[in-house]
Amino acid sequence: MINIDRYAYASYLRDMHPADKFSLAVMTMLLVLLVNSLYISSLIIIIMSLVVLGGARVNVKHYCQMMMIPMAFLLVSCTTIAFNISLHHNQYSHALVFGHIWVGYSYNSLINALNLLLRSFAAVTCLYFLALTTPMVQIIFVLRKMKLPSVVIDLMLLTYNSIFIFWQTAQHIYIAQLSRSGYRNFTGTIRALACLGSNLIIKCIKNSDQSYQSLLSRGFTGELTVLEDDNTFRKTNLYPIIMFESSLLVIYLMGRL
Amino acid sequence: MSAFIIETRGLCYKYSDGTGALQGIDLSIKRNCKVAVLGPNGAGKSTFFLHCNGLLKPGSGKLIFAGQEVEYSKNYLRHLRQKVGIVFQNPDQQLFSASVRQDISFGLLNAGCSKEETILKIETIGRQLGILELFNKPTHYLSVGQKKMVALAGVLVMEPELIICDEPTAGLDPVASAALMEVLDKLHSNGTSIIISTHDVDQAYGWADQIIILDRGRVLHQGRPTEVFSNPNILDQARLKKPWILETWEYMQSKGLVNSELPPPNTREQLFRLMPTAENAYR
After folding, report:
1. CA-based nearest residue in chain A for residue B104
2. Which of A69, A198, A248, B209 has the highest Cβ tally under 10 A?
3. CB contact under 8 A, A211 and B78
4. CB-based contact B163:B195 (threshold 8 Å)
């Protein structure tokens, strides 16, 4: 399993101030979503990917594999936008007809679909930049500073921690089942997976009970108050980010003229 | 100040599924004592521990902490949980935070410590337990031994009067196990009372001042290690085996190799010192 979390902790950009990484990712994402341009979107895809692969030193093969997941969703959605089904035939550039139903695409719909694909993909690369260079503890720091309700942050923290614990438990159960030929055929696999899932849920509930008890033993009052790391905020780091965004905007505007 | 840190009178507790976990526990545990609680699985050790800091409320009977009867009001429980710290068996259930430093700070910030004081106390405990280099790591990347140390740190940093460890050395390699017991010894020398539960009779014999044996929700025996483990009836009833130091000592006594007037040794060093040497091997 490609561990995004491990990349975040091992990243060369880990010690960059989290607010900088956050603002870079979010501002670029907003820019690419508001500016409806094929060129800007492609440019951002290239730049962000280069930063992640070169700056954060992520393995190229892993990066491509990670991109496959959102790409799959995007391709499906964009296909449905590119191709239309209708009873009228005047909107299509090329179409096939089945009885009274027309299935086809038009120049406009293709451009729209491509635009959407590139825009969404660019936004995804910004998010991956954030995920692969910023450990969870830094993300939580930024969210706290942004005054996100602590209930949401606490939930995020607990979910994040639990993922690793339950992933390990699931692995152990899977290996035990495999050793007893649990995945030999299709029915066996389905049955084994069902057992794994239900068992895992029970373990989760039991674990949460015991976690709650140990939190109470340490004086839990309802909020997971922990020590915030000292990340000194330096305003000067914002300038290169703003310059980057402005230059992108300028390129876009120049392209329109 | 009461001489006893924990006393119970007829403590009874029944789980919601009907299991009678505790059926009348009467105990008096002195301050600054090293107590090992033994007993077969299901004896009620963990249930008893959960009563000690108010997580469970007994069905009948009462619990007395430091001479004061435990009430189950929010304020009192908050005060009690700062004085009594429990380190549970599974460290995964106690660590929740994204970094070790933050996890340890949880108890202190809940107790109302200021940020500067918290930072200072965390650094001190990190140095004492030798986990300073782990402070920036996320908790899920640690080994079992490291996780146990971090869980212990999170409780110790609150400076409780009584520390209860549920099977502290379970799953640890000998080096990590010895390191953890050393930490507990140091705490004891600073005045903290310590209660551990263990299945390792050798460890209990060598380490504890007092042994408590629980079986099926009742106290089978409470006493000094040598008196408890020398009694074959108690050992039979509790399904325990004799510690090897005591076994060796009794064997040597039966063969006339050592002076039977001497009290039995507690540690292997004492045993080796009392063993017959080449000079006095043959009487």
Report:
1. A226
2. A248
3. no
4. yes
By the 8 A CB rule, do A90 and A106 touch?
A: no
Could you tell me the two tokens for A112?
A: 């729209």
Q: What ipTM, to 2 d.p.?
A: 0.84
What does the radius of gyration of chain B's CA atoms come to, in whole angstroms?
21
Residues 118-137 of A with CB under 8 A from B: 135-137
**Half-sphere exposure (CA, 13 Å, Cβ side) for A178?**
6
Q: In what order do the strands lie in the sheet with B20-30?
A: B20-30, B4-14, B60-65, B68-69
CA distance B140 to A218: 20
C-alpha to C-alpha distance for B137 and B149, rounded to whole angstroms = 14
Assess A158–B contact: CB distance below 8 Å, yes or no: yes
Q: How do residues B232-260 score in pLDDT, each as one tens digit?
A: 998 888 888 899 999 999 888 888 888 77
Rounded distance between C-alpha atoms, residue B17 and residue A155, angstroms:
30
Contact A9 B138 (CB under 8 A): yes
Distance CA A123, CA A33 (A): 7
Cβ contacts (< 8 Å) between A229 and chain B: which residues?
A: 99, 101-102
User: Rounded to a whole number, what is the distance in angstroms from the first to the last CA of chain B?
Assistant: 53
The values of phi and psi at residue B173, to 5°, are -75, 165
Among the listed residues B40, B30, B42, the one whose alpha carbon sits nearest the alpha carbon of residue B2 = B30
Beta bridge partners of A225: none
The residues near A142 (Cβ < 8 Å, ≥ 6 apart) are A18, A19, A22
Rounded to two decimals, the pTM is 0.84
Contacts of B102 in chain A (CB under 8 A): 137, 226-227, 229
